[in-house]
Amino acid sequence: MRECISVHIGQAGIQVGNACWELYCLEHGIQPDGQMPSDKTVGGGDDAFNTFFSETRAGKHVPRAVFVDLEPTVIDEVRTGTYRQLFHPEQLISGKEDAANNFARGHYTSKYFSPFLVLFILQSG
């Protein structure tokens, strides 16, 4: 079985990713809370569906995705949006402050926001 992990980085990546996962849910009949009323995965079915979603023991479908940004505002839109129950909190990684389009500020903020945290979550997920 194939598995795709989507990594959405920065404001544009997160906004596009949020819209993309909303569309995936609509296409596969998944509700905003991750439940599928007519569970198509029971009894085998189409393995293509499981490429993008993993199913928990409780029957909830969780996207194989990670959202990352230095600034929490855009990720907070995902955390409080319509599909807030779809994502696990560990998939939404944000820092404390924005780089304000300043390379040096973003570069030296890395001591507060570790890319190793993102790699760890990707490897353990």
Structural notes for this entry:
The strands form 2 sheets. A 3-stranded parallel β-sheet has the order 1-4-5, sandwiched between helices. Strands 2-3 form a two-stranded antiparallel ribbon. The longest helix is centred in the N-terminal third of the chain and has 19 residues, at 10-28. The protein is built from 4 helices and 5 strands. It has helices at residues 10-28, 72-80, 103-108, 115-124; strands at residues 6-9, 53-55, 61-63, 65-69, 92-94. It starts with 5 loop residues before the first strand and ends with a helix. Helix content is 35%, strand content 14%. It has 125 residues and is an alpha/beta fold. It is elongated, with a radius of gyration of 16 Å. The chain has a single domain, classed as Rossmann fold (3-Layer(aba) Sandwich).
Keywords:
Tubulin_FtsZ_GTPase; two-stranded antiparallel ribbon; microtubule; Rossmann fold; 5 strands; three-stranded parallel sheet; hydrolase; 125 residues
Low-pLDDT segments: none
CATH class membership:
Alpha Beta
Strand order of the largest sheet: 1-4-5
The computed structural class is: alpha/beta
Report the strand count: 5
Average pLDDT works out at 83
> How many independent structural domains?
1
The tally of helices reads: 4
Largest sheet: 3 strands, parallel
Distance between the termini: 16 Å
CATH superfamily annotation: Tubulin/FtsZ, GTPase domain
